[in-house]
């Protein structure tokens, strides 16, 4: 794995630590959280400047901010949400995205009863106007919040616009012919994580038993 | 990191490969995707049986299923969703959870206009009946889909029930006094991932420039 693949992992890990009010962290502790060796971590971060201090470790907040800068996260992304049903409206209500530089400019739907309404001041527009709106408003991310069977049609329209990224909440597997990056949200992965953690104690016993079985079978 | 922390990462990675219709994979390829060494991966999986074949690698589907069994994911979890607004309703509409053994038995809300309605046959019940319902129906996971300011009150009620896991979609930081596992969903992390990937080309140039700057400053 190249440093370019590890940087986002540092950023996410430091973001979590920040939310837990952790002030400083050593490369050893980061190593345990991330699964990379401490010397790999020190070497990666050394590429970009002198972040750590011998005997102190890293300041979580400043390292987080520096990596955000390196990753180019200090730019604003203009987004639209395609689909103004429950999911689209729920996403439009998240203020968190805007705080982090992802600005929702409009929602789009085919339902005449929704077109013209506003969510937190963000207008729901007619899906027919989508491509025109995207190209005129410098939109680079489209969020797909339509039912899975409608997703392919939406993607077909998006590939003809200036959109560079698709954030896909539908379960449809999306393929884009050209240079559009697709990030699929699989909520089930997060639910699995909860389930792993709930099972951890039982799992430790199970692993121990299986190890013993192997030893006995030798 | 212990094997117990790495197993879920294998499971998630293999799940992604399955969705991409990948049939088989070598420990070297897994190593590149996961960031653990190939020998670590072989050693971990060797703990549980003879999964791989020399020269062939691992069969993705059977390894995925075996790890699911080891992780105890072949049991059914009963869930409720607290909050039947846009987000709660959107989550209730995901059929994916049930397919993977997470069964939603009810939604709860305080809004009298919602109580009594059904989403995909799942009833919206009065929030006052929540603790009674949980204990009576063997619920082990509660999904928090209420506004952040209401989350603490909900958690207070949940800590007095048999719930073992909380899947938190609110931005409230939740602390549970007793043995409840909390998994926070931070959608912003997924949006960051999309953004990283959109920036990857630019980032490679930036890294190269900064490396050159360092060399020149020596």
From TrEMBL, chains A, B:
<comment type="similarity">
    <text>Belongs to the transcriptional regulatory Rex family.</text>
</comment>
<dbReference type="InterPro" id="IPR036291">
    <property type="entry name" value="NAD(P)-bd_dom_sf"/>
</dbReference>
<feature type="binding site">
    <location>
        <begin position="83"/>
        <end position="88"/>
    </location>
    <ligand>
        <name>NAD(+)</name>
    </ligand>
</feature>
<comment type="function">
    <text>Modulates transcription in response to changes in cellular NADH/NAD(+) redox state.</text>
</comment>
<dbReference type="InterPro" id="IPR036390">
    <property type="entry name" value="WH_DNA-bd_sf"/>
</dbReference>
<keyword id="KW-0805">Transcription regulation</keyword>
<dbReference type="GO" id="GO:0005737">
    <property type="term" value="C:cytoplasm"/>
</dbReference>
<feature type="domain" description="CoA-binding">
    <location>
        <begin position="72"/>
        <end position="173"/>
    </location>
</feature>
<dbReference type="InterPro" id="IPR009718">
    <property type="entry name" value="Rex_DNA-bd_C_dom"/>
</dbReference>
<dbReference type="GO" id="GO:0003700">
    <property type="term" value="F:DNA-binding transcription factor activity"/>
</dbReference>
<feature type="DNA-binding region" description="H-T-H motif">
    <location>
        <begin position="9"/>
        <end position="48"/>
    </location>
</feature>
<dbReference type="GO" id="GO:0003677">
    <property type="term" value="F:DNA binding"/>
</dbReference>
<protein>
    <recommendedName>
        <fullName>Redox-sensing transcriptional repressor Rex</fullName>
    </recommendedName>
</protein>
<comment type="subunit">
    <text>Homodimer.</text>
</comment>
<keyword id="KW-0678">Repressor</keyword>
<keyword id="KW-0238">DNA-binding</keyword>
<keyword id="KW-0804">Transcription</keyword>
<dbReference type="GO" id="GO:0051775">
    <property type="term" value="P:response to redox state"/>
</dbReference>
<dbReference type="InterPro" id="IPR003781">
    <property type="entry name" value="CoA-bd"/>
</dbReference>
<dbReference type="InterPro" id="IPR036388">
    <property type="entry name" value="WH-like_DNA-bd_sf"/>
</dbReference>
<keyword id="KW-0520">NAD</keyword>
<dbReference type="Pfam" id="PF02629">
    <property type="entry name" value="CoA_binding"/>
</dbReference>
<dbReference type="Pfam" id="PF06971">
    <property type="entry name" value="Put_DNA-bind_N"/>
</dbReference>
<dbReference type="InterPro" id="IPR022876">
    <property type="entry name" value="Tscrpt_rep_Rex"/>
</dbReference>
<dbReference type="GO" id="GO:0045892">
    <property type="term" value="P:negative regulation of DNA-templated transcription"/>
</dbReference>
<keyword id="KW-0963">Cytoplasm</keyword>
């Amino acid at each position: 794995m190249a440093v370019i693949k590890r940087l986002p992992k540092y950023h996410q890990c430091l973001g979590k630590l920040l939310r837990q009010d952790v002030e400083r962290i050593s490369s050893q502790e980061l190593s345990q959280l991330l699964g990379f060796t401490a010397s790999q971590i020190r070497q990666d971060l050394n590429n970009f400047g002198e972040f750590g201090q011998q005997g102190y470790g890293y300041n979580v907040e400043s390292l987080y901010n520096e990596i955000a800068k390196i990753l180019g996260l200090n730019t604003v992304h203009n987004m639209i949400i395609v689909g103004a049903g429950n999911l689209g409206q729920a996403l439009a209500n998240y203020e968190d995205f805007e705080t982090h530089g992802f600005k929702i400019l409009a929602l789009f739907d085919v339902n005449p009863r929704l077109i013209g309404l506003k969510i937190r001041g963000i207008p729901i527009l007619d899906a027919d106007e989508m491509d025109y709106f995207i190209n005129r408003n410098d939109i680079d991310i489209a969020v797909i919040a339509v039912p899975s069977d409608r997703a392919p049609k939406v993607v077909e329209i998006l590939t003809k616009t200036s959109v560079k990224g698709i954030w896909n909440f539908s379960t449809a597997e999306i393929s884009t012919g050209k240079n559009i990056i697709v990030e699929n949200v699989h909520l089930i992965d997060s639910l699995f994580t909860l389930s792993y953690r709930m099972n951890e104690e039982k799992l430790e016993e199970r692993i121990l038993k299986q190890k013993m079985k192997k030893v006995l079978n030798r």
